[in-house]
Design goal:
about 200 residues, about 30% helix, elongated
């Protein structure tokens, strides 16, 4: 796959605003040769490195993760989640990335105790069945909220990995609707059925 190139869109919009006058028409009109910078050839687009793009993406994801964590913890004092906000960008597409928001343990369906993690991504995709975490990425949706069951990694280099024994692929929920995502996280964190019933009615 070809390596993506990124350029600074703000720089090109500033160039468009100036609309340089063609040097030859200025000469025909006044007889003078314009020597100002704006009459020279249009400046080239400023291309961004993958590291610069990843840094910009990371800042946006970090802010989104922190705001989402505030919303979740602001619902009810009895449902509080640890703040564990960190992000990753995709190696070959640094404009795409995901942010880990929180993690907890809960009783889920017929599973006695499930450790899970909640994420936000700035794209929508399927969760892969193998080492490829994201499959069939669709940038048509601006966000994806999802939670996966997790377990300690078998390899010492990875601390946690998806627990695919839960529901076959480890996916607890996935949505592009922020309200549905918060409701699902709250349901996972609710300690009793009474509180779950209140959350379901939201």
């Amino acid at each position: 796959m070809a390596r993506l190139r990124y350029f600074d869109a703000k720089d090109t919009s500033r160039l468009r605003e100036r609309q340089p006058i063609a040097a030859h028409s200025e000469f025909l009109r006044t007889g003078r040769i314009p020597r100002e910078r704006r009459h020279w050839l249009a400046e080239e687009k400023r291309y961004l490195t993958h590291d610069e793009v990843a840094a910009k993406t990371g800042r946006k994801l970090q802010v989104a993760g922190e705001k989402t964590h505030q919303h979740i913890n602001g619902f009810h004092h009895s449902i509080q989640f640890p703040k564990m906000v960190f992000h990753r960008t995709l190696e070959d597409s640094p404009h795409l990335g995901y942010c880990h928001v929180t993690a907890a343990r809960t009783k889920f369906a017929h599973y006695d105790e499930v450790s899970w993690a909640f994420y936000i991504a700035n794209f929508y995709s399927d969760i892969g069945d193998n080492d490829n975490f994201f499959q069939r990425i669709d940038v048509g949706y601006s966000r994806m909220y999802f939670a996966v069951a997790i377990k300690p990694g078998e390899d010492s280099s990875e601390r946690m990995t998806i627990d695919r024994s839960v529901r076959g692929n480890g996916l607890l929920f996935r949505t592009h609707d922020p309200q549905a995502a918060i409701r699902n996280v709250l349901l996972l964190g609710a300690r009793n059925e009474q509180l779950r019933e209140i959350i379901r009615q939201l």
